[in-house]
Amino acid sequence: MALPLVLTNNYTYEIAILVGLNAIVCVGLNFLIGYAGQISLGHAGFYALGAYGSAVLSARYGVYPVISVPLAVGGVAMLAWLVGKPVLRLKGHYLAMATLGLGVIVSVVLANEDWLTGGPDGMTVPPLFITGEKAWYWAVGAVLLLTVWLAQNLIDSPRGRAWRALHGSEVAAAAVGIDAARHKLAAFVLSAAIAAFAGALTAHYAGFLTPSKASFLHSVELVTMVVFGGMGSTLGAVLGAAVLTTLPQLLTVFKEYEMALFGALLMLTMIFMPQGLVPTLEKLLAAAGRKAE
Amino acid sequence: MLLRAEKLSKHFGGVHALEGVSFEVAAGRVHSIIGPNGAGKTTLLNLLSGIYRPDQGKVFLGNESLTGKPQHRFAAAGIGRTFQNLQIFFNMSALENVMAGAWLHEACGLAAAALRLPRLARAEAEARRAARELLDYVGVGRWADSPSTGMPYGALKRLEIARALAARPKLLLLDEPAAGLNPTETREIDVLIRRIAEGGVTVVLVEHDMKLVMEVSDRVLVLDHGRRLAEGEPHAVSHDARVIEAYLGVEAC
Predict the structure, then answer these.
(1) Residue B64 above 80 pLDDT?
(2) Nearest-CA distance from B169 to chain A in Å?
(3) Where would you tag: which of A209, B101, B114, B159 has the fewest CB atoms within 10 A of its CB?
(4) In chain A, what residues touch B170 (CB-CB under 8 Å)?
(5) Mutate to test the interface with B, among A154, A157, A179 (most CBs of B within 10 A)
(6) Cβ–Cβ below 8 Å for A173 and B100
(7) How confident is the model at residue B253 (pLDDT cuts 50, 70, 90)?
(8) What is the interface pTM, i.e. ipTM, of the complex?
(9) pLDDT bracket for residue B45 (50, 70, 90)
(10) What angle do CA B1, B165, B156 make, to 5 degrees?
(11) By C-alpha distance, which of A34, A14, A15 is closest to A133?
């Protein structure tokens, strides 16, 4: 929040806003990956559907953005429920496969239905009541803080413990009456809705949308952010989003190798700190603290 | 009868793990299930807790039929359990493990949880206190706030019991609670099981430690090769010729 002091031009504000929006998505995705123990490879699809949903409603049908944003979020939540309901009754990682398929379908539809979405050329999006980089910076920051606060409350509630229990041992969770399928579905729908909300905000902020937002690679980026930052750590999700959003901007020379960079980082994380950045640092600090005593 | 199992059968491929086993457990008793390795004890426990669905047969708790229902419904009906190979929530502290065990009694809505409504905050404080009490009750209170990964094996066994009790079960299934424990720890588990039974929770115990079984049980069911071999008072069962034969082999007779 103290960043405006250092941020001197619009470009740096733009990156900070992008970090904030990605962080919101990651805090939501972390419910699913870090707590409910499931992976979604189609979160860019939900993100893009939120963006395009609100964009199409407001640009083509004249719905006020204040109304089109929640409508898009609700629509995506319903879609996630419909996809998740049958899939999450199965044990194992079928959700990853189903969302992978869904993400690909979304990206193809967005690219080809040009009468609605403008196709690969993209479409312009009417602005929200927030205008200017600075205002957006504060708005996104506030939304991120609110998301983190809600997430922390949720994780520290009986429901959050039920989700963590599922990740710890599904059979033991069921043995104390936790309905695995229902809770995984709730975590999945919530994470999809949050992604859609961030997507809708992005659309109105940027004022222009292209189908690249829905790409499979973007889904992988989002998962990498959560895993790198630390599964099951809200702070980790925010930090993961911050590092992996800014890094490619700083290393523009390597633009073509961006995905290779993400892949290498994911591999190195899994090998050297499988718990992710923040939990690993917390452990090191705790160990150092014990040594100091 | 609190629990009624009727002619339960379970096959895994060509292996008949359990063949038409019926048995009943009266409320307030400690009922043990013994038998040589591979007799079907754990299979029976998994059928009684809903982890497996029987190929044939039925399970009733009181008058409620649980046959074919999903596992979490068995817990909701009042059947709790522990696991032979530990199934601790290693991503949580000991206290949180027990609090998670109380899920059935403190379920809350998504919105109430996210907004941390005052009503929930009060319920949480109460849940924390109750969980601490349960940890003290099973004798691992001093590990309450430590991560479960740092707890010794014997303490984890007790933590599983505390977590199962947090769900306030009518029937508690204990799968080898003394396995891997030294004689002193085993005696302490003996005392704990009796205390649980006296507290009004019916116990079904699967155990290899015969001394523990003989001391703590009101009734004993003996399984062999997936079939019911004998059932009765511990003393009678331990003198049953068929039981001795199953354990020691025919030549020994």
Answers:
(1) yes
(2) 9
(3) B114
(4) none
(5) A157
(6) yes
(7) very low
(8) 0.89
(9) very high
(10) 130
(11) A14
Residue B46 is predicted with a pLDDT of 93
Position A149 scores a pLDDT of: 93
Going from the C-alpha of A209 to that of each of A121, A126, A148, A281, B246, the distances in angstroms are 9, 11, 27, 38, 74
pLDDT at B252 over 60: no
Confidence of residue A293 (pLDDT cuts 50, 70, 90): low
The number of angstroms, rounded, from the C-alpha of B87 to the middle of its chain's C-alpha atoms is 12
Does the distance separating the beta carbons of B83 and A171 come in below 8 Å? yes
Q: Which residues in A lie closer than 8 A to residue B163 (C-beta atoms)? A: 172, 176
Of B89, B102, B115, the CB nearest to A169: B89
Name the strand (E) or helix (H) holding B8.
strand B3-12
| Ramachandran assignment for B30, one of left (phi > 0), alpha (psi -120 to 50 degrees), beta (any other) | beta
Please report, for chain A, how many H helices and E strands are present, in that order.
13, 2
pLDDT, residue B191, reads 92
Tell me which residue of A15, A14, A43 sits closest to A28, measured CA to CA. A43
Q: What is the pTM of this model?
A: 0.86
The pair phi, psi for residue B96, each rounded to 5°, is: -65, -35
Tokens for B169?
A: 């079960």
- In terms of C-beta density within 10 A (0-12 exposed, 13-18 middle, 19 or more buried), how is residue B227 classed? middle
CA dihedral B71, B72, B77, B81 (to 10 degrees): 70
